[in-house]
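Lab notebook, design round three. We kept the backbone fixed and only want residue identities now. Task for the bench partner: fill in a sequence for the structure below.
Input structure tokens:
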């Protein structure tokens, strides 16, 4: 199931929104603002690591049933078509 385009949020847009809130002083004192920036940085890096390692594991042949389910053609990269029965 795909989300409608209006409900998809990009990582860059989220970072811009948090950055603008820090600039406007939404989070109050400097310490909560710094904490929010550190949390954002950590979560962005974590999400990039998860997608990198998932791709790496799928390319090496581990989780072959999952790979067959995600990719119709083994040469497809970056296209996730999950077929589920409802």
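Proposed sequence:
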């Amino acid at each position: 199931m795909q989300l409608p385009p209006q409900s998809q949020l990009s990582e860059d847009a989220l970072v811009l929104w948090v950055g603008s809130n820090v600039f406007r002083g939404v989070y109050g004192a400097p310490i909560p603002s710094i904490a929010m920036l550190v949390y954002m940085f950590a979560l962005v890096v974590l999400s990039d690591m998860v997608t990198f390692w998932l791709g790496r594991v799928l390319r090496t042949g581990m989780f072959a049933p999952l790979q067959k389910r995600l990719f119709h053609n083994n040469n497809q990269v970056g296209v996730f078509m999950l077929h589920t029965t409802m």
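Keep this in mind before ordering anything: The chain has a mean pLDDT of 76.
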